[in-house]
Specification:
Blueprint: E1 7-11, E2 17-21, E3 28-34, E4 39-44, E5 48-53, E6 58-64, E7 69-74, E8 80-85, E9 90-96, E10 101-109, H1 111-118, E11 128-133, E12 141-146, E13 151-155, E14 160-165, E15 177-179, E16 188-189, E17 202-207, E18 214-219, E19 224-228, E20 247-251, E21 261-268, E22 276-283, E23 292-299, E24 308-316, E25 322-327, E26 337-342, E27 348-351, H2 353-361, E28 366-367, E29 372-373, E30 385-392, H3 400-415, E31 445-451, E32 456-460, E33 467-472, E34 488-494, E35 499-504, E36 508-513, E37 522-527, E38 531-535, E39 543-549, E40 555-561, E41 566-571, E42 576-580, E43 585-589, E44 600-608, E45 631-638, E46 642-647, E47 652-658, E48 667-674, H4 680-695, H5 700-707, H6 719-723, H7 726-729, E49 732-738, E50 741-746, H8 747-751, E51 759-762, E52 767-775, E53 778-786, E54 790-795, E55 801-806, H9 807-811, E56 824-825, E57 830-835, E58 838-843, H10 863-875, H11 901-923, H12 965-971, H13 974-978, H14 993-1000, H15 1005-1017, H16 1022-1030, H17 1033-1036, H18 1046-1051, H19 1054-1060, H20 1071-1076, H21 1081-1086, H22 1091-1099
Parallel strand pairs: 15-20, 24-28, 37-39
Antiparallel strand pairs: 1-2, 3-4, 4-5, 5-6, 7-8, 8-9, 9-10, 11-12, 12-13, 13-14, 15-16, 17-18, 18-19, 19-20, 21-22, 22-23, 23-24, 25-26, 26-27, 27-29, 30-31, 31-32, 32-33, 34-35, 35-36, 36-39, 37-38, 40-41, 41-42, 42-43, 44-45, 45-46, 46-47, 48-49, 49-50, 50-51, 52-53, 53-54, 54-55, 56-57, ...
Helix pairs in contact: 10-11, 15-16
């Protein structure tokens, strides 16, 4: 799916997704898979052709087109592409996978031939509105549609026009207009068409038969024409007799003002004949009518002139951007098609074949059906995500192995689970990483999201391809608790016990154990005064241990402490509670911590051992218990920048400080940083400030009042109790992020009453989110997100800006309100964030490799399937020709690479039988200049003198070779030999530089080219030139020399010459200039078509 901002979303089966980001933020005109090859071609609005490597998820090659590209098509199953432009030219490109480059081939469909065949001059800016290769023609035939309604069927193998159709061919008579309007019986009309001699601009078209005999064309006036092209296969004359049976008109409305037919797709029904199916139409209805997708069931088994509209249904849409038809999955499901609609909001809606049949069978024309929605791996809007968290799981922890087994079982179960209607997701592409199936696989990270409906989902986030583990509903089985379905407002995860805490806007806290520690299944419902125990069977999966209901206030922050034995809870009303998760009881609940009752925005807990050092161990040993793990401090930050420090063991407040840098400052976040690795300069500044404050301790009270520190009438720890944490706090710093400033404080000094910051940085724009990150287990930087979407990376502790980026430059996202609530980061710089329907992970550190393991990403190209297709093709060379019109089904900005063997092997067999070499031979030379394959040259070597070349006389070769009678018959006349077996009435043909080099760059070319360069540059004598040229007889004997006629000069005007040869509109180069360039030296000798060339040769 191409997006307006230059991104491409690739979606396969089993929640396999990828996002490709183009360097330029431009919409795409076209998208097309190079089927079964692992590449995707795209055309940007600036006419840049891009080929994407799906395996490596990057651009493999680009080519900037000089003119405006108006049409694009890929020959199915090949690397060859057609390009149509605004000047009416159709060119051929090839993607060279080995060289990783897009090659512009010399083959172009000449406009002068088309104008002559159409019997009218073509304007300079007649755009090519569509190019389609004809099915069952091995890629030889190409249908070209022009904006004025002219259609050409071109045969590249014979370089001729097979068929011409246009508005002059609309010989519509009685009963050749099929009225498919809503208020009619869909029968043939007796009206006589008035379309004769009126130009009709084409807006869309598609094949309506598997063999390319019927073409459906949509016009800008709302008409739909079915053209019968079956006589094109049997005639050599494109001016063959035209019949009124060749075209039938369909009208979706009888109104005089109708919408253009923007999208046309055709799908064959289950019958074996090629005379019917379903036509999908977007547009063509009355102007001002409701936006619908019209599905017509058509039948012309008695001939196209007897076409009938059997049924019609108008599918109500929720916005429309594009559509595509997919073959049904499974080998035994017949030829059914699934309809995929892309809405303008970016949603995918799926209608399977059964659903479409039911809709068409209904009598009413307007219908709506329950679609198969794309089941997003990470739902963000339905249901609406409100908060998210990334939790770590210690690989060697006692619960890691058990959780990994649960994850493996959940993935296996999800693989066998289908939609409730029994409908399978129609896409099957892609292969999951094999790393997820290894025996030593362990879950290392979990991503947790809370939703508006009260539910919570847990994913395995060990690798970038997340997989769902659990869905925790809002209700608790066996007990009715009011408020459990309220919006989830806060989450926290304990890595040691794999316990999940869920807080909602009604003040409820639910505790879940992802892995059960025992067979205990009881549930505790804890209030401020009661602790009820309910025994119930909670089944398999996570177990809800307790529900706490202390205050009817939104929970803003949750933080586990003391290895999961404590849980700090911050409320919107400004109060804090500490819960004991081991006994499932609450320890204390504070009063409002600020006079303004400001909400709690951040909670951080630090634990200290008995030796007064900070505990940094990442896992709990079996000998350690919550009782002997030491003391802990809970740091609480309110929205109005008040800091409260609480002793989690004694439940006493240590200090309360007002830290607002300005009167109306708003705090955004708070971070506790270990500064043991800070530079000596920073530590010296910190110690100097501490010494100065110690000397001025007697004057600290008024200083504190001036700086905004306010003492509250609360019970604080005594100085001796506070001193117990002194050594543990000496290396800790507190980083306060406000909307307008960043401030770094010494935590020890703050608790002692020092309000001066160690470092401060004022912000020019409002900040809304921040995070710190580590490198090599040391604090190294700060990431700040502004409301404008700008991201800054700042140094620690100096807070200097190191680098600036933005959500737009990284992800093409605009910042949205409340986006920061679903953002979370890990300590090694991984940021997970959500925007609309999209979820992304951004790594701040280039050295971070957790989410950059290429083997961990799902493969977008199934190489095993590719090999299987090639093997099946090689084993079935006599398979019947393709009867499916899949190549004509894919168009627009949404493309499918569905390449099931049972669906496409017949057509791929046809392509592979001739191989790419067949198409290479067709397109490696310009039209009419293909090398002759009927004549082989096995003559003996001849000697040729310069004097033997006669420009105005028939060429005579003096040689001693002999010709047999058979050779004379095969090689024909002298003129046929000169012009490669062309007929007498055919004009000599132009050759390009590439063509000449490809033909004459053989063993004798070096002796042919160098003398010509030396004659011009160094003035070698004629005698030496003759001697050197004698060695070039092998090249010259194949040289086809001929005069150009006046007709050829008129046809190939200056502008036309440059357009045909891909150049600019510069003046012609003279012969001297041409021959001075070694690239053109061969052309100067071979193209003897002007007086200047003859004069040049006569001089030398």
């Amino acid at each position: 799916m191409g997006m307006l901002d230059g991104r491409i979303k690739v979606i396969g089966g089993d929640n396999i997704e990828a996002l490709l980001i183009s360097p330029k933020q431009l919409p795409f005109k076209n998208l097309e898979f190079l089927q079964n090859q692992g590449f995707l071609a795209s055309i940007s609005n600036e006419n840049e052709i891009q080929v994407w490597d799906l395996e490596h998820r990057q651009i493999a090659s680009t080519l900037q087109w000089e003119s405006n590209i108006t049409s694009f098509s890929v020959i199915y199953g090949t690397p060859y592409m057609y390009i149509g432009c605004e000047y009416g030219m159709v060119s051929v490109l090839k993607y060279d996978a080995e060289g990783r480059r897009i090659i512009q081939l010399p083959y172009r469909v000449p406009t002068n031939i088309i104008a002559e065949a159409a019997g009218m001059p073509l304007p300079n800016h007649l755009s090519v509105v569509g190019v389609l290769h004809q099915p069952s023609c091995e890629g030889n035939r190409l249908l070209i549609a022009y904006a004025n309604g002219l259609m050409i069927l071109w045969d590249a193998s014979e370089d001729r026009i097979v068929l011409v159709r246009g508005y002059k061919d609309l010989l519509l008579k009685d009963k050749t207009v099929v009225d498919c309007s809503k208020d009619t019986g869909h029968e043939l009309s007796n009206d006589v068409s008035d379309d004769r001699e009126v130009e009709k601009e084409i807006s869309s078209f598609c094949w309506a038969s598997n063999n390319g005999s019927v073409l459906a064309v949509g016009y800008i006036d709302g008409d739909i024409m079915f053209w019968n092209l079956s006589n094109a296969a049997s005639t050599k004359d494109h001016k063959a007799e035209k019949s009124s049976n060749d075209v039938v008109k369909l009208q979706l409305s009888s109104s005089n003002k109708r919408l253009p037919v923007i999208v046309l797709h055709f799908a064959k029904t289950g019958s074996d004949n090629d005379c019917g199916g379903r036509l999908f139409v977007y547009g063509g209805d009355e102007v001002g009518s409701e936006e619908v997708l019209t599905i017509l069931s058509l039948d012309w088994s008695s001939g196209i002139e007897s076409m009938k509209c059997i049924g019609r249904v108008d599918l109500t849409l929720n916005g429309f951007a594009d559509m595509v038809l997919l073959p049904s999955t499974g080998a035994m499901e017949g030829r059914g098609m699934s309809l995929v609609v892309l809405t303008n909001l970016g949603k995918l809606e799926i209608y399977d074949d059964t659903c479409l049949s039911d809709l068409i069978s209904k009598k009413g024309t307007k219908s709506s059906a329950a679609t198969v929605q794309y089941l997003m791996l990470i739902p963000t809007l339905d249901p609406y995500m409100t908060v998210a968290k990334l939790g770590l799981v210690y690989r060697n922890g006692k619960f890691s192995k058990v959780l990994s087994e649960v994850v493996s079982a959940a993935k296996l179960n999800a693989a066998h689970t289908s939609d409730t209607r029994g409908t399978k997701w129609p896409l099957t592409g892609g292969v999951h990483s094999q790393l997820l199936e290894t025996e030593d696989y362990r879950v290392e990270r979990v991503y947790i999201a809370g939703y508006q409906d009260g539910s919570v989902r847990v994913w395995d986030a060990t690798y970038p391809a997340l997989s769902l583990i659990h869905i925790l509903g809002s209700e608790v089985n066996g007990i009715n608790i009011a408020g459990t379905s309220a919006l989830v407002s806060a989450l926290d995860f304990c890595s040691d016990t794999l316990t999940l805490a869920i807080g909602n806007e009604c003040g409820l806290v639910r505790l879940y154990e992802l892995i059960r520690n025992s067979d205990e299944t009881s549930l505790h419902f804890v209030t401020e005064t009661e602790n009820e125990v309910h025994n119930m069977d909670q089944g398999d999966g996570p177990c809800c241990r307790a529900v706490f209901s202390l205050l009817n206030s939104r929970i803003c922050a949750l933080q586990f402490a003391k290895f999961g034995s404590r849980l700090a809870v911050g409320f919107e009303c400004g109060r804090v509670a500490v819960l004991d998760t081991s006994t499932l009881s609450f320890l204390f609940l504070t009063d409002c911590l600020s006079e303004s009752r400001s909400p709690i925005i951040s909670l951080t807990v630090k634990t200290f051992s008995d030796s007064n050092s900070l505990i940094n161990t990442t896992e709990v040993s079996e000998s350690e218990t919550p009782e002997n793990l030491g003391k802990g401090l809970v740091f609480v930050m309110t929205r109005d920048a008040h800091l409260i420090v609480i002793d989690s063991w004694t439940c006493k407040m240590v200090t309360i400080l007002s830290m607002s840098p300005k009167k109306d400052s708003t705090a955004v976040s708070m971070h506790i940083i270990d500064g043991s690795n800070f530079t000596p300069k920073t530590r010296k500044k910190h110690l100097l400030n501490s010494a100065q404050k110690s000397e001025a301790k007697s004057e600290s009270a008024p200083t504190n009042l001036q700086s905004g520190i306010t003492a509250h009438e609360v019970e604080l720890d005594t100085p001796s109790e506070t001193a117990d944490f002194g050594q543990g706090l000496i290396n800790l710093f507190l980083l306060l992020c406000c909307e307008d400033a960043l401030l770094l404080y010494s935590l020890k000094s703050m608790i002692e009453g020092d309000s001066n910051s160690v470092w401060k940085a004022n912000l020019a724009k409002p900040c809304c989110w921040s995070t710190t990150f580590k490198k090599d287990e040391k604090e190294c930087g700060l990431a700040v997100l502004y409301q404008s979407g700008v991201i800054e990376i700042r140094s620690l502790p100096t807070l200097e800006v190191l680098r600036e980026s933005s959500l737009m430059s990284i992800l093409r996202w605009n910042f949205k309100t409340n986006m920061e609530k679903t953002m979370f980061s890990s300590e090694n710089g991984q940021i997970m964030l959500v925007n609309g329907y999209e979820f992304a992970t951004v790594s701040l550190l280039a050295s971070e490799n957790d989410f950059r393991i290429p083997e961990s990403l799902p493969s977008l190209h199934d190489k095993v399937l590719e090999a299987a297709v090639d093997a099946s093709i090689s084993l079935s060379p006599n398979q019947k020709k393709r009867e499916d019109a899949a190549p004509g089904l894919l168009a627009g900005r949404i493309k499918s690479s569905e390449a099931g063997i049972e669906e496409h092997d017949a057509y791929l067999t046809e392509v592979h039988k001739s191989g790419f070499a067949h198409l290479e031979s067709l397109f490696s030379s310009p039209p009419f200049l293909k090398p002759s394959t009927a004549v082989t040259d096995d003559q003996d070597s001849v000697e040729l003198n310069l004097d033997d070349i006669k420009i105005d006389e028939p060429i005579e070769l003096s040689s001693s070779y002999h010709k047999s009678n058979n050779e004379r018959i095969d090689k024909g006349t002298e003129r046929e030999r000169l012009f490669e077996s062309s007929s007498n009435d055919r004009a000599p043909r132009l050759r390009t530089a590439e063509e000449v080099r490809a033909k004459y760059r053989k063993a004798g070319v070096s002796g042919f080219r160098m003398p010509l360069q030396q004659l011009h540059r160094q003035g070698i004598s004629l005698q030496n030139a003759k001697k050197n040229w004698r060695g070039s007889v092998n090249a010259l004997k194949n040289c086809k020399v001929g005069l150009r006629t006046l007709h050829q000069w008129q046809v190939n005007s200056q502008r036309q010459w440059n357009v045909v040869n891909g150049g600019t509109y510069d003046k012609f180069a003279s012969i001297d200039n041409i021959t001075s360039d070694p690239v053109w030296s061969d052309l100067a000798l071979i193209r003897l078509f002007s007086k200047e060339a003859r004069a040049f040769l006569s001089k030398i």
